[in-house]
Specification:
This protein is mainly β. The chain has no helices and eleven strands. The strands form two sheets. Strands 2, 4, 5, 6, 9, 10 and 11 form a seven-stranded mixed β-sheet that branches.
Length: 121
C-alpha cells in the first residue's frame, strides 16, 4: 500500500510564505513525475507545478516566479515553497506521484488527501 501525506498548509496573510511537503511511503520501487494541484469549491482541480525524476520543472503561469517545486528523492518527499501568496492562491492543495510499486512493473498515479491553504487579504 502506498500513501502520500501532505503537510504545511495553513492560514497566512497576503504576501506571506508557506512550504508544503508531501511524503510518499509504502512499497515503492521508484517515483517518476510528481506534482502539486489545487482546487477551490466549484472549480476543476488545476495543476500548479510538476517535477520529473531528473529535476525538470514546470509551473502554471499564475504561480511562476512565486512558487518553487522541489523533491528529495532519498526521502521520497515533494515540496512546494510558496512565496508572495495572494488571496487567489487559497485552495486545497494536493500532491500526486507517478510511481512504480515494488511488486509490479506497472506505474500508477497516487494522490494525497490534500492540505488547506488560506491566504487572507
Amino acid at each position: 500500500q502506498v500513501q502520500l501525506v501532505e503537510s504545511g498548509g495553513g492560514l497566512v496573510q497576503a504576501g506571506g510564505s508557506l512550504r508544503l511537503s508531501c511524503a510518499a511511503s509504502g512499497s515503492i520501487f521508484s517515483i517518476h513525475t510528481m506534482g502539486w494541484y489545487r482546487q477551490t469549491p466549484g472549480k476543476r482541480r488545476e495543476k500548479v507545478a510538476g517535477i520529473t525524476s531528473d529535476g525538470s520543472t514546470n509551473y502554471a503561469a499564475s504561480v511562476k516566479g512565486r512558487f518553487t517545486i522541489s523533491r528529495d528523492n532519498a526521502k521520497n518527499t515533494l515540496y512546494l515553497q510558496m512565496n508572495s501568496l495572494k488571496p487567489e492562491d487559497t485552495a486545497v492543495y494536493y500532491c500526486t506521484a507517478d510511481l512504480q510499486l515494488s511488486s509490479s512493473p506497472a506505474r500508477y498515479d497516487y494522490w494525497g488527501q490534500g492540505t488547506q491553504v488560506t491566504v487572507s487579504s
